[in-house]
Write the structure tokens for this entry.
Amino acid sequence: MIKTPSPAAYALLLLAALSSSCASKKPYATSNKIYQQQVKVIAAEISKPPLPLTDTLPAEKASEWVGTVNFGMRRPNYVVIHHTAQDSLGQTLKTFTISRTQVSAHYVIGKDGKVYHMLSDYLRAWHAGNSKWGSITDLNSVSLGIEMDNNGTEPYTEVQLNSLLNLLDTIKLNYKIPADNFIGHGDIAPGRKVDPGVNFPWKKLAEKGFGIWYSDSLQTPPPAFDPMDGLLIIGYDISRPQDAIKAFKRHYLPDVAQDAEWTDYALSVLYNLYIKKKTALL
């Protein structure tokens, strides 16, 4: 018979799991040490029963903590891809290892293809900021953040993209993340962010199962089709319509990303993706 661990034992198991990705080594020994300390605080908090709740019963029959034996760690359900918009990989790693910046990501991928794992996948990184996708307004709590070392204007290297695809393969397999849920920072924060930028090969990723793409054969949308409804169904925040249109074009039509006007072709692309998304939701 398998014995279920107590909350305290589970916290120790969690501590071991969260700490495993952070072996202390130079030149980031200090930040690795702080990581270990913060993980211990989280593990200790998880192991404590919550405070009693106020309910409708008399005080002598007040709420009681009864620990269930059926639980596990929460898993990410989205991947948000960024570019670093900084001058070097070293600058990005420094940014993510000093507390005053208040920003982080789970992974950083260098131009040479080296992958830096910066935070356990089960912990909440601070990468999405003020953002929205569909009805989700706290993307940090449900996603993994991946930063590509790129200043925002240069092409991505082949080895860098190959490492990204390998990483996404592992993430998708481990957490069963749907293809639709691989998105960009610019998608979830229209008007505020543009990364991973117009040079990012979204079509290539979609062909590998990371994101959606439109078909080669497109049909003209019916006259009653509202493009704002299309953007909304895909996931975009349409509270600022011009920004939402540009974000959509940056992802799917990067050659005309600065233009917020709808062409017949852009509408056909949107309609194709709208139909795909609606079909997936049925």
Notes: The first helix runs from residue 7 to 19. Residues 7-49 form one domain. The radius of gyration is 22 Å. The beta strands are 78-83, 107-109, 115-117, 143-148, 182-184.
